[in-house]
Please model this.
Amino acid sequence: VETSAFSLPEPDDALEADYQALLQKICAHRTLLAAENENRYHDLTDYFTLWVHQIKTPIAAMQLLLQAEHGQRSRELSAELFKIEQYVGMVLTYLHLGNDDTDYLFRRCPLDEIVRACARKYAKLFILKKISLSFQPTGMTVLTDEKWLCFAIEQILSNAIKYTPAGKISVYEQDGELIIADTGIGIAPEDLPRVFEKGYTGYNGRTNQKSTGIGLYLCKRILTKLGHSITITSQLGQG
Model:
């Protein structure tokens, strides 16, 4: 372990020598603490990465068991299992975002294909909650990482479904932007400026106890890294 990140001149007297010795000890202690924190972070990351991959096995097994069942109860259980799977994926995404070596593969992608793939993924929840999807093809092409953009759009669709008791979700292009609108319960004006903060759940999250305060935070981080932007407008009771 390096004891100093800088060199010091020769001390002029005993007092300055003592100060330099104390400074070297503080620097060495700081370096040691940084190394310990780095090791703890990597251990925690390794554990959760292993956990995510292990939990996928029972999830897949439950999916197979539910495929043999039919009826409303089975559909409801399948939808809840799908949510569990999405939360597991969120853990892995959160871990990857913390790595400096996260891989991004930028290329020009048809936006409509990405949106359709995301919508198909959530088809079960649309059907179960009897919410319709209105999708107007945008014809847009975006320079992006398809995997990461898809995750962000999925989180937005998930939130829209979660907080829309009835009605529809609309996806369309307006002034060169992708709009995802719902007819849900809306967001309180005082919560709007903070919805992208880590862990912030707001009035809706506290009332319905459905929010983790992580989804939109991850969206904001991912889209910023991709060079995209995200904004939210809302009115209570209107979506």
Summary: The longest strand covers residues 168-174.
